[in-house]
Amino acid sequence: MSTSGDPLPAQSAPRPWPLSPEPEPVFGMLVVVLAFLAMLFSVLSCGAVALVIAHHVPSLSRVHPADLATDPRVLLPAQLAAYLVVLGVLWRLFAYHFRIGFFRALAWRWPLRWPIFLAAGVLLALAVQFSANFLPAPPQLPIDQMMRTASDAWLMTVFGVLIAPFAEEVLFRGLLFPALTRRIGPLVSLGVTSVLFGAIHAQQLAGAWIQVICIMVVGAVLTLVRWRYRSLAAATLVHVGYNGALFAALFVQTRGFTNFPPR
Question: How far, in Å, CA of 53 to CA of 38, rounded?
Fold first, then answer.
């Protein structure tokens, strides 16, 4: 098998429903568990290092540590560093241990009609936002506190649209879903993956369980796309479209990230 990181050829038409991920993953649950533990350790370690560095930056030295921990200028570079470390380890693991390229191992498969998946993500965001108008929600969420200036909002937008979807899809739909499917079947794996996907966003939503459940539904849709099209790239495109639509709506609501409510 090839050791290159080249993705699989573009996918044309999917096979009939229902499908389980194919080909069967070369990795097992041990790799998945270690990847998640490595991500947790990397996020905590890089976050601690970022806080130490921030204390020596003149513009940040007087900021309270609790506020620094949620400052996008500190938090996002730390998360990016953690993602790069874990993804780099996975890249080498697949190439040198499993003798297969990173993208091929995760069934990347770039879809030929990729704009359709971006549009599907936008429609999913509109549906979730419309439904949220009829659901109870706290007046303010922790994630809102991270976007109080235009620069913070732009940092969050770039990270949330271009970086976070890829990293999250690799972990949940690239690794966890196919490995769980091998053991417990695709339907149960879909449910478990969606619940865990919602759980990692619970802190950002301050335990607002209605909103967490909405995230779980989004996770289920992303997993269905991964399952239906056997393509991690397709699920990532939907995720990018979803996040992009949310940030675009925020951009409009805040008049170009210039009119945030007071703290």
Answer: 22
